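We modelled the chain as a single entity of 328 amino acids. Its sequence is:
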Amino acid sequence: MSVSLSGPIGPHSGYGVDGRGGDYNTKPAPRVRPEAQHIATQHQGSVGNLFELQGTRIGISQYRPKSAPKDHMKANARRMRQIQRASKQREEESNKPVKAMWKSTKYDTVQSKVGEELKKEPPAPRPSSANYLRAHSRTGSVDGSRGIRTPSPAPSRPCSRTSSVERLDIPRAESAMDVKLIRRDVDFVKANGRAVRKPQIKRAPSLTALDDLKKKKEEDEKNYKRGVMPKYLVNRHKEWDRAEQERIANMPDPDCPPGHHKMPDEERKKTLSLLRDKEKSYMQQLSALPVRTDTLRVRTRKDELDKKLTEIEEAIKVFNRPKVFVKD
């Protein structure tokens, strides 16, 4: 059976369709050899290498990024806001209430003398004519001598309603003839020459007080005993030592058995000295006995002395210890 085709054979339905997905890149990755950088440098020419300075090739234009233009309006606005914040902070700090200074309440009940003087009524004012054309008002003393003083005017009294003119005690003009001025013969030229030869520079009171303070400090430094402990510190150390000794004396001894107490050290030493004295006296009595012990009396006496000496030796061993405990 023969089949005839009326036209060309069509393409397959799966021809040209990649089943690996659309993200798959059909182009191969470029292959770069390790010596590619060296080859690229060689193909740039050798003239630029001759003018290379500190790793920078001359003749090759380098790209320099253009700096962004500065916005002066924003900078000024930012600066103004900073100044406003600082000013506002200063105002808030200045509005804080000031802490009141400490004041002693010791003199709160004491009345002020200045306040009492201010509460008094002021004296009545005197008219301007009180000192007008007063006799001897411009006379003064010569060379420190006093002239005749005019009588002081009487205290002014408040004006009464009936009389509107004050009566003033003003000396009369005729009394000017009675004024006597005393003049002494003083050689002012010699006095001035003497003053020039020995000038005395007047200093301010503050400088004088400062010099006195410096002298006082120097004297205190000179008289100060260095390295000597003050008396109050010495007394305090003695008190501390006394308290420590009392604490140690009153502290219970850990070696003390129950039902006993420690004998004081002074009493122990006193008992020890008495025992040694007795031992010495018994030794003298023992040495005074005859050498032969034929009689019963001598043997009995010798045995008694030996027994007492043995007891005393045992007691001396006990009281010779640093601690002696006695039953309560």
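As a brief sanity check on the tokenised model: The CA atoms of residues 290 and 325 lie 41 Å apart. Confidence is low (pLDDT under 50) at residues 140-151, 153-165.
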